[in-house]
């Protein structure tokens, strides 16, 4: 009888390594953990088409019912152009303010411990939960000429309500949480060892922030800025109460669209909406390109 002689493993081979699976030996890919990829992908595309693509397509098709002259008259009248200037200018300014103070608030919430911290952290989410109309009424009651704050500012020539200043303040209010909640988790996950290493090498506080912290949080900052900017462009409820809605002065583009709809000028309303959609898409595209460039630059540095 011939006894089986065990074969020794090849030099350098791991004896504890598992044998290749049948799928790997057969040259086929491993099974997915979650089956039904085709079904879920089809449902995803159907849902996105139903919620996003079909309404946008209807918007474009309704606009195509206008001739070029009618379209240009609807989107380029002086009143509409003035509303573009206010809407996009105030949205950009509000997003810039939120970029700075949102970073500051996120920094305080992450890096410091103080009494009432959880209350402050909860207050950041208040604009998410508060109805926009309630926010507009509250800001108006606070900043109007007979309000708690406005009654002391207007005699000194500072008017914050019923003019473009009120629009900017309302947009700052509704956009702040986007920056804070986008930057906050990135700061929490940042490696403090890098800051300690920079300190041991003699870097100043400004150098540590500019060279170590800022590159790490810049993608999150740009994302928060884009979200706050996009949210501000379409804001309506909180603005109309504090803006004053004076044509050529404090009238926002969403109010122009609502006015055209109330006049049954559906094609004109969709034409203005298409222009807002186009401007928003271009600006968000530019922001995303800058964000991708910054990630590539910081990764290659």
Class inferred from helices and paired strands: mainly alpha
Number of helices: 14
H/E series: HHHHHHHHHHHHHH
The number of strands is 0
Q: Bin the helical content.
A: over 70%
Query: Low-confidence parts, pLDDT < 50 over ≥5 residues?
Result: 1-6, 22-27
Judging from the principal axes of the Cα atoms, what is the shape? globular
Beta-strand content: under 5%
The end-to-end distance, rounded to whole angstroms, is: 69 Å
Query: What's the pLDDT, averaged over the residues?
Result: 84
Largest sheet: none
- Rg from Cα: 28 Å
Task: Chart the SSEs and their pairings.
Blueprint: H1 22-25, H2 37-63, H3 68-75, H4 78-111, H5 117-124, H6 126-129, H7 132-143, H8 150-153, H9 164-189, H10 192-200, H11 205-233, H12 237-243, H13 253-262, H14 266-300
Helix pairs in contact: 2-14, 3-14, 4-9, 4-11, 7-9, 7-12, 9-11, 9-12, 10-11, 11-14, 13-14
């Amino acid at each position: 009888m011939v006894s089986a002689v065990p074969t020794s493993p090849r030099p350098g081979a791991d004896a504890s390594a598992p044998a290749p699976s049948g799928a790997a030996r057969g040259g086929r890919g491993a099974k997915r953990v979650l089956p039904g990829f085709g079904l879920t992908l089809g449902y995803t595309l159907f849902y996105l088409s139903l919620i996003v693509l079909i309404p946008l397509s209807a918007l474009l098709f309704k606009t195509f019912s206008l001739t070029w002259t009618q379209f240009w008259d609807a989107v380029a009248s002086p009143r509409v152009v003035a509303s573009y200037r206010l809407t996009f200018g105030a949205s950009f300014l509000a997003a810039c303010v939120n970029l700075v103070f949102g970073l500051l608030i996120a920094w305080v919430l992450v890096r410091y411990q103080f009494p009432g911290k959880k209350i402050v952290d909860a207050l950041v989410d208040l604009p998410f939960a508060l109805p926009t109309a309630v926010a507009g009424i509250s800001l108006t009651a606070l900043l109007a000429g007979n309000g708690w704050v406005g009654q002391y500012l207007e005699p000194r020539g500072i008017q914050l309500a019923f003019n473009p200043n009120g629009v900017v303040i309302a947009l700052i209010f509704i956009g702040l949480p986007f920056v804070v909640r986008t930057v906050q988790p990135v700061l929490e996950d940042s490696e403090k060892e890098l800051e300690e290493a920079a300190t041991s090498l003699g870097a100043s506080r400004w150098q540590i922030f500019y060279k170590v912290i800022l590159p790490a949080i810049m993608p999150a900052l740009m994302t928060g800025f884009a979200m706050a900017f996009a949210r501000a462009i379409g804001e309506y409820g909180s603005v109309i109460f504090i803006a004053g809605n004076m044509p050529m002065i404090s009238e926002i583009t969403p109010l122009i669209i609502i006015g055209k709809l109330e006049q049954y000028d559906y094609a004109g309303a969709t034409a203005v909406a298409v222009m807002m959609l186009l401007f928003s898409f271009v600006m968000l595209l530019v922001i995303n390109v800058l964000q991708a460039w910054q990630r590539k630059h910081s990764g290659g540095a």
